[in-house]
Amino acid sequence: MKIVTAEAFKEERCRALETSALTSSVDDTVLNIIQTVRKEGDAALFRYTEQFDGAKLDILELSEKEWERAMFKVDPNVLGALTTAKEQIEQYHRLQKEKSWFEQVRPGVTLGQKVTPIERVGIYVPGGKAVYPSTVLMNVLPAKIAGVKEIYIVTPPDREGNISPSIIAAAKLAGADTIFKVGGAQAIAALAYGTETIPKVDKITGPGNQYVARAKKWVFGDVAIDMIAGPSEICIFADDTTNVSFAAADLLSQAEHDEMANAICVTTSDSFAEELQKEVAEQVKQLERYEIANASIEQFGRIIIANNIEEAHDIINFIAPEHLELMNEDAVSSMQQIQHAGAIFLGPYGPEALGDYVAGPNHTLPTSGTARFASPLGVYDFMKKSSIIHYTEEAFMREADAVATIANAEQLTGHAKSVLIRKEFFQ
């Protein structure tokens, strides 16, 4: 990992943002896939699944037998851990559920908000480098708690046309309706526009590679999406009191996701920075996913030395990290100074991996600095709100002239007339 100053890191990050736009070839490929799926439906999905995943399928939907067999194939310990995670994720997310409300705010005027779940949701679960049953739980459970009626999962099959038993088990535990064996931009297109087999949904959630992310961006507007997910990120704030081996292990826990992952440590201690640099170099050699983690650390790993705690807080807010671990001596005080972060972990016993699996809060978090304006996935993402307005005759008469005055000022005389015609009628 490189050791840099806060100022140097800011300059480096700004340069990277200027050149981070995806190549036009990615857009061209994604748009072609979307248009083809819209035109050809299932036929395009079968063809793309064979082309990109090497699986020749006869049917896209997971069969009942596959659902049943999966529960017997999953390691009982894994199933037990997934069950624990499910219960704790549900416990947290139930606290997020909003209720409709109605209130008389002025004499004769009742206003309110009607909260309604989205009807149909599609969830993308990545395949490829790893298997992610936790993604299933983190997306399906908030949707179920919100009251979504239909929840469909899309995920790429392996070359034999199979889906990992742990993915299927997680889907069954969480209560998903079905799984379709399709991934990539083609799966996003299918969810957005529908095919003979895959229903059109109202919202798409879940992470994926750059093709999936770009496809979500292109279909947004025709369907809702959760966010455009970038590479995974972790930022650790450490000082001389921080356990260096803990910090190194936590940085590498994100670096092993993929070569583009960002693992960053901010510290006010020169000596800690040097110790951490050595510790990371030693620990990365022990990882099964060494090549991926090492590539991430070499290219994007940074140890930032801040001149003081105020500068440390400033650079963390500049990064707006997906995951933030405050492992410094006064983590609670530092938390008060953090304005932008997807999830904040406090103290030495809060590794980011807890949040990925069993703590309860959602692990689908804003990346690439979007924590400046975005939030973790939650029950609120699967609900929508309608404004409710009711006036009595007396309340209407009291406010009619104000409405007509504003409408006429905007030269919308039809608006004014719709009010005045009632006023004349009641008079």
Structural class: alpha/beta
Radius of gyration: 25 Å
What summary fits the major beta sheet?
6 strands, parallel
Q: Name the beta content range.
A: 15-25%
State the CATH topology of the largest domain. Rossmann fold
The total tally of domains equals 3
Active site: 322 (proton acceptor), 323 (proton acceptor)
Catalytic activity: L-histidinol + 2 NAD(+) + H2O = L-histidine + 2 NADH + 3 H(+)
Binding site for Zn(2+): 254, 257, 356, 415
EC number: 1.1.1.23
Précis, in short:
This protein is of the alpha/beta class and 427 residues long.
Structure description:
- Pathway: Amino-acid biosynthesis; L-histidine biosynthesis; L-histidine from 5-phospho-alpha-D-ribose 1-diphosphate: step 9/9.
- The active site is at 322 (proton acceptor), 323 (proton acceptor).
- Belongs to the histidinol dehydrogenase family.
- Its EC number is 1.1.1.23.
- NAD(+) binds at residues 124, 186, 209.
- There is one protein chain.
- With 427 residues, this protein is an alpha/beta fold.
- It folds into 3 domains: 2-21 and 230-373, Rossmann fold (3-Layer(aba) Sandwich); 41-225, Rossmann fold (3-Layer(aba) Sandwich); 392-426, no CATH class.
- The chain contains 17 helices and 14 strands.
- Strands 1-11-10-9-12-13 form a 6-stranded parallel beta sheet, sandwiched between helices.
- Helix 7 links the parallel strand 5 and strand 6.
- Helix 5 runs parallel beside helix 7 (165-174).
- The longest helix is centred in the N-terminal third of the chain and has 19 residues, at 76-94.
